Amino acid sequence: MSRLQVVSGKGGTGKTTVAAALALALATEGKRTLLVEVEGRQGIAQLFETEALPYEERKIAVAPGGGEVYALAIDAERALLDYLQMFYKLGGAGRALKKLGAIDFATTIAPGVRDVLLTGKACEAVRRRGRDGRPVYDHVVMDAPPTGRVTRFLNVNDEVAGLARIGPIHNQAQAVMKVLKSPETAVHLVTLLEEMPVQETADGIAELRAAGLPVGRVVVNMVRPRVLDEAAVRAASGERREEIARTLASAGIADSGALVGPLLEEAAGHARRVELERAQRAVLDGLGLPAYELPYLGDGADIAGLYRLARELRRQGVGAA
Ligand SMILES: Nc1ncnc2c1ncn2[C@@H]1O[C@H](COP(=O)(O)OP(=O)(O)O)[C@@H](O)[C@H]1O
Ligand SMILES: [Mg+2]
């Protein structure tokens, strides 16, 4: 299993939820995972019902079996200060940075540089080792920008190419790309069984591949149970009015005549959705990627729901050696 798992997808398909469930699922058997967010939305804090995350890794959940999930909201300005301190060994950082003009730079920071700082921080967490020489985190899961922006976000080398004269940033971009393009990384795309997100997923995969980034899995989220079998779906789309009215009457339901219309409409609606989902599933199958499938949580994606999704992911092989 890759050590850096990047989760993207069309907005609203469940990126943050899936990233959190994945981090929980990977924290099996005493493993430690870091869940990072990069867009300053505090979505992770909301999901885990904790206060806003500071720029600091802190434990937010314990997985069944004793694993731990840490979380970090990465902030570009703070990442820049970290970075300068690390690379230039700046003591008395504040004073020195002011002298360098870095504080001003931090507020007007170019988008490409911002991205390399954000991805750089995540890659640093992947590579970080403790005193015992073992990785501090077994896995890092990133709640990434949406599909339309993720390739550009991850392809930091191209983004900073125009700034190549700034040596250290260029070197940092290359170091980051080395991690992002390695088998240590997998980029997953979350989708629903609906036309728009599936189309975005197909486009996103093509873009990621063209950029040489490792595509992981498609995560089909919010899958609803089938309530009608094949025969019932066919019946609902056909003209079986009389027969259904007779069946209702023989079951002793009063005023069964008035019930037939709404019931058939309901069933036909379900049948149409099943058809649409089938078509979208065929498109996804055509992409030839392995998929995870997560159920629609009727009670919403609260903490209990997250643990349920994590269990579901483990059942589908996440965290298996
Ligand atoms: N499997 C699911 N079942 C039910 N609701 C879900 C599921 N996954 C996500 N949600 C809900 O969908 C909404 C969007 O999810 P979120 O993870 O914030 O998406 P994104 O990060 O892609 O914008 C949230 O209200 C979340 O609780
Ligand atoms: Mg989100």
UniProtKB/TrEMBL annotation:
Residues annotated as domain ArsA/GET3 Anion-transporting ATPase-like? 5-181
The source's domain of life comes to Bacteria
InterPro entries assigned: ArsA/GET3_ATPase-like, ATPase_ArsA/GET3, P-loop_NTPase
Give the molecular function GO annotations. ATP binding; ATP hydrolysis activity
The UniProt entry, under Pfam families, shows: ArsA_ATPase (PF02374)
This protein is called ATPase
Origin organism of this chain? Streptomyces termitum
